[in-house]
Design brief:
With about 500 residues, the protein is mainly α. It has three domains: about 160 residues, Alpha Horseshoe (MgtE N-terminal fold); about 120 residues, CBS-domain; about 170 residues, SLC41 divalent cation transporters, integral membrane domain (Tetracycline Repressor, domain 2, Orthogonal Bundle), CATH 1.10.357.20. It has 22 helices and five strands. Helix 8 crosses helix 10, helix 15 crosses helix 16 and helix 17 runs parallel beside helix 22.
Length: about 500
């Protein structure tokens, strides 16, 4: 334990911030540690307890920490809160000015947001929530107490209340849940000069506005007018002459992951959201799509490791245990199965000890190969690039790759085994076992995510755990089975 602590201390002292954000985190952590030391001294009989100098040092430390927090962007404050232990996190959170609470709550991870909201009373939550737009509030609504949500809706005017109800009526993975209601609409029967005067009258336009939405008297979308077209065309021209009528549009029930791919594919900054009658009801923006892409990537990473949800890195032992135990239990069962496979061949291993040294190689290479295949398949499924017909073709291709890799690298390790143990037969068994296990890894690497997808499950869920279990047990069985048949 002491050695482990020594290593951690060496890592901490050798670590140097590689980005400005890491530098801010390091300074905040240093100030918090210094504050903690000052407070500990103040509690001792001979410390800074009634000493004005000690109180002054503590006050100065607090002022420095306050300045550091105030100078940061809300997203950077959120990153720091995510990276701090709970007690330090709350110390920083208490220093955040109330007019920034809402922005920061939107940026922190779900797990950390839960802990911050638990530290706030109802008036504080209300004050933070009132700073948010309807679409932003909808993101937080499920984390807020019911009485707070009810009070917020009572304080809203009718249009805002309707927008909030609309956003909350959609599932988290639907476009309607993340659409923005702030947008600029114009009519097609006016001149560009009128539009320019209208924009100057507004003085401020919504963020991520790269186009104006053209609607008729019934709010039906008829086209879009990119701002760059507005600026470079003759002000006397009519909107109908300049606007684009073939704009990319989305509907509120569409999947957000597929929509994010469309944003990437078409290089969109914003896009209109329309209902079944093509009436304009909102818009999507690139900042929301970036959040979707990041969340999808995070969810896939967690799923492949068998984690059910995003976990606060400083969560309690019990919370972390609940999040991780399922796949660990499954992994324990699969490890036991692998051990029983080895147990079936105890006699063979006793007669030829070299088998014990070589069999982890077969299992390990199979697991790595299977994880490579699964990573590629899950990515293709996420991007919508894989159809059933394509899956069959991909399976044939992966089988071919596995056979060639098995023959090449199995042959290499087979010759190494021959040289080490002086047995050509052992080298041949090693080559055959490597080839067959890579073939198994390829088959399972395609079939596992495709099967999960067929049953409407996340194709990445526990995929790494499953493929490792199969290639371990399969690799041991294949190698030891061949050795028993041909060498013992």
């Amino acid at each position: 334990m002491a050695e482990c602590e020594r290593m951690m201390t060496e890592i901490e002292t050798s670590n140097r911030p590689s980005t400005p954000l890491q530098g801010h985190l390091a300074r905040v952590s240093e100030m918090l540690e210094r504050r903690r030391q000052i407070e500990e001294l103040a509690e001792t009989d001979d410390g800074a307890g009634g000493d004005p100098a000690g109180a002054l040092v503590l006050k100065q430390n607090l002022a420095d920490l306050q300045r550091e927090i105030d100078a940061l962007h809300p997203a950077d404050v959120a990153h720091i809160l995510d990276a701090l232990p709970p007690e330090d996190r709350l110390s920083v959170w208490h220093l955040v000015k109330s007019d920034r609470d809402g922005e920061i709550l939107l940026e922190v991870s779900d797990a950390v947001r839960e802990s911050l909201l638990a530290d706030m009373d109802a008036p504080e939550i209300l004050a933070a929530a009132e700073q948010m737009d309807a679409d932003e509030l909808a993101d937080l609504a499920e984390d807020l107490p019911d009485d707070v949500v009810h009070e917020l809706m009572q304080r809203m005017d009718a249009p805002e209340r309707e927008q909030l109800r609309s956003a909350m009526s959609w599932e988290d993975d639907q476009v309607g849940a993340i659409m923005d209601f702030e947008m600029i609409t114009i009519r097609e029967d006016v001149a560009l000069e009128v539009v320019l005067r209208y924009l100057r009258f507004l003085k401020e336009i919504p963020e991520q506005t790269d186009k104006l939405f053209v609607v008729n008297s019934e709010n039906v979308l008829t086209g879009v007018l990119p701002l760059k077209w507005l600026l470079v065309n003759d002000p006397a021209r009519m909107v109908s002459e300049v606007m684009a009528v073939d704009a990319n549009t989305f509907q509120p029930e569409e999947d957000v992951a597929e929509t994010a791919q469309a944003f990437e594919r078409y290089d969109l900054v914003s896009a209109p959201v329309v209902d079944a009658d093509h009436r304009l009801i909102g818009r999507l923006t690139i900042d929301a799509m970036v959040d979707v892409i990041r969340e999808e990537s995070d969810a896939e990473t967690l799923s492949r490791g068998g984690l059910r949800e995003d976990e606060d890195i400083f969560a309690s032992v019990w919370k972390s245990l609940r999040n991780r135990w399922t796949w660990l239990a499954i992994n324990l069962v699969t490890a036991f199965i692998a051990s029983r496979v080895i147990g079936m061949f105890e006699g063979s291993i006793e007669k030829l000890v070299a088998l014990a040294a070589l069999m982890p190689i077969v299992a390990g290479i199979g697991g790595n190969s299977g994880n490579q295949t699964i990573t590629m398949i899950v990515r293709a499924l996420a991007l919508g690039q894989l159809s059933p017909a394509g899956a069959r073709r991909l399976l044939r291709k992966e089988v071919g790759v596995a056979v060639l890799n098995g023959l090449i690298w199995g042959g290499v390790i087979g010759m190494v085994a021959w040289a080490l143990y002086g047995s050509a037969a052992l080298g041949a068994v090693m080559t055959a076992a490597m080839t067959l296990n890579l073939l198994l890894a390829a088959l399972m690497g395609v079939l596992i995510p495709m099967t999960l997808m067929r049953f409407d499950r996340d194709p990445a869920m526990g995929a790494s755990v499953m493929i490792t279990a199969l290639t371990d047990s399969g690799g041991f069985f294949i190698f030891l089975g061949l050795a028993t048949l041909f060498l013992i």
